[in-house]
User: Fold these one by one.
Assistant:
Number 1:
Amino acid sequence: MRPVLYILSFLAVLGLAFWAYRENYATQHQLKQMAAVQDEIASLRDEIAMQKAEWAYLNRPDRLRDLAAINFDRLGLMPIQPQQLGTPENIAMPAPPPLVITGTVDTSAVIDAAPNAAKAAPTSKGEQIP
């Protein structure tokens, strides 16, 4: 019985070694693919940065002003004047939400306090009204 157990254990170790070997190579392959994708991402970011710099260079105000002047006959572009811009009054502001009172409001304390507040108020000479 022991030799069969030894053979089965040896086959199990061989099977696990083969599995670990394949997993190791599969992991290495995935790491190489991930590195390639990261390299591609880095190169695309560099291209985007270069295109943003080129866009900023092409959109310089002095260059655009010169192009508008050169092509005035064809395009009819005019310089921006302050009168073309709107004023703050032209901005549509949203209406405030309506005030909704859902419970009861006790106003008796406010009504009772109002006469006492008028009596306690000092006059122009600094004396109180009786």
Note: The CA atoms of residues 37 and 56 lie 28 Å apart.
Number 2:
Amino acid sequence: MTAVLQRSQSLTDAPDLDSRHHVVIIGGGFGGLYAAKSLANAPVKVTLIDKRNFHLFQPLLYQVATGGLSAGDISSPLRSVLSAQKNTRVLMGEVVGVDPKEQQVQLKNGEAVGYDSLIVATGVSHHYFGRDEWANIAPGMKTVEDALEVRRRIFLAFEAAEKETDPQRRKALQTFVVVGGGPTGVELAGALAELALGTLKDDFRNIDTTQTQILLVEGLDRVLPPYPAELSAQAQQSLEKLGVTVQTQSLVTNIEGDIVTIKSGDRLEQLQTCTVLWAAGVKASPLGKVLAERTGAELDRVGRVMVEPDFSVKDYPNVYVVGDLAHYAHQGDRPLPGIASVAMQQGEYIAKAIRQRLVGEAAPVFAYKDKGSMAVIGRNAAVVNIGTLQMWGFPAWIIWIFVHIYFLIEFDNKLLVMTQWAWNYFTRKRGVRLITGHDEIPAIAEQVAREMETEPIKDNAVVNV
């Protein structure tokens, strides 16, 4: 135990060994970062731990995936963001364990960090509803690597189609299926349509990219289910105007090779496609389960931690969970949504609560202020829902642009994104169309493997496309 405590001090107390209240924050997303920033002038010492060294603006990941922005445009180094806060340290590491009785967190490398207050904000990942084997063939978008993999597959599909001589396989290469009609799915489908029907239309000689088929599959009766019905209808209309086929009340029941099976009512349909993109469902990070095992906290069906009204874990008033990992059901008739503005307000609230408790005052009552929701469909097309105000079309698109630029963390990110968007708007170009990594399309590789099992191997057979 002594060795563990010594390691904890070496990580968190050097070089000044003081006795200030120590707040450890796990996760540098919106919730964790806003909590850290809100503790800048508090009489505490803060340690922010993240397995990455940067904050990622996840709402714009789909633009990285479709070549509109580079990953650096929407990422900010955590050390740079917090460098002016002399009471704050940043540690790059992965937390794998929590000991609430000893008040320590364990890192993957064996180190331990002690805390007086703990804020857990590790978010969520993709949820394949028990079909985790689909992850390789239907990637989602939660990390930079995810977005780069999606970008690789999108542009590689067009490159492969340019070389393909078989009409059926060429059609499969130019068919894209987006699973999930929430904001991510809608925005991704719209960006894909603009890419294929606009940006790329003059770039190829053997294929017509305007013949690309994009199918958006949603299990409920409309896209953007949390939005008012009128805005959902406007979003679907805008998508269809771009050339996206919207299929609601439909579920993907199987993905095998280049065949996707879709169930609509009692009807089963099989579609040949080489690119399936996942935007349906989330599950909590593994740290939610760790907390449940160590504290007895309840989890909801996707693994989020059921928190108290002040975001603490039951029976552990100094352990807080915020952001997408928190199931907060103390305001309204359903849990708060997993969006950036919720996480920001929660992070700021926890920082204020810790400040007040240090001076013996009761924590304030948390009251989420709904800043509205918005989704962009494409050029001059978006939907915005702010209180009783519902907007769509060009005015909503302008609001969407300025809101997203405003919430980017650093000034250089704001400037870069604004400049890139202006260039893309006037030229209809997407400049970050890089294909990195290997040149294999999983659906084709699997299909070719099956063919080679049933047919004699031919000369000059090529598996990669």
Note: Residues 132-280+372-427 form a domain with the FAD/NAD(P)-binding domain fold (CATH 3.50.50.100).
